[in-house]
Design a protein that fits this description.
The chain is an alpha+beta fold. It is 32% helix and 30% strand. The protein has five helices and six strands; from the N terminus they run αββααββαββα. Strands 3-4-2-1-5-6 form a six-stranded mixed beta sheet. It is globular, with a radius of gyration of 15 Å. The protein binds adenosine-5'-triphosphate (ATP) and magnesium ion (MG). The site of magnesium ion has 5 residues, from helix 1. The site of adenosine-5'-triphosphate has 21 residues, from helix 1 and helix 3.
Length: 152
């Protein structure tokens, strides 16, 4: 995957498969700490401890259509190449949070890509799921929440 927007789309697909009703996507660029953080949080079915332990392994999937599951392992690889890592937290019935951390100035840190297009695609394809998109760059924050739109 060439850029982060495609990883985000892919990780959000996991949330959709897990029957999430709300997906929160947060990106934070902190030039002082030299960190780029991408967080995708859902309220889907979550994972038990066993599944969680294996989730990043490329040869693990609960899909029944094929035998590899690459989404999380590719994200972990992208983060590691930029001196970062992926943190997962999940509990059965308690949703899942995927947090990928990158060193912003690292030459192998992938470009963001067209994140707005990714968000548009997700919203258009999943009208029954709420999406929050938040992008912090140093001191400024952009925030978009379909829950607030729907209320109007
Ligand atoms: N948000 C999530 N909620 C619940 N389970 C998840 C979530 N994300 C990942 N998983 C579990 O971790 C496994 C591995 O995820 P991963 O994205 O790496 O592969 P995949 O979705 O199975 O296949 P691929 O991404 O290649 O289409 C999934 O099969 C699923 O069991
Ligand atoms: Mg996946």
């Amino acid at each position: 995957m060439q850029d982060l927007s495609l990883h985000i789309l892919d990780i959000a697909e996991n949330s959709i498969s897990a029957s999430a009703k709300r997906i929160e996507i947060r990106i934070e660029e902190d030039q002082i700490k030299d960190l780029l953080t991408v967080e995708i949080k859902d309220d889907g079915k979550g994972m038990d401890e066993q599944t969680l332990k294996k989730a990043i392994d490329p040869f693990f999937t609960t899909r029944t259509t094929r035998e590899v599951g690459l989404g999380l392992s590719l994200l972990a690889q992208a983060a590691q190449q930029a001196d970062g890592k992926v943190e997962l937290s999940s509990a059965p019935g308690g949703g899942t949070t995927v947090k990928a951390i990158f060193r912003l100035s690292h030459p192998d840190c992938k470009p963001a890509g067209d994140i707005h297009e990714t968000i548009r695609t997700l919203i258009a394809g999943n009208p029954h799921i709420e999406f929050l998109y938040e992008h912090k760059r140093n001191d400024s924050t952009y925030r978009f929440d379909t829950r607030e739109i729907n209320r109007k």
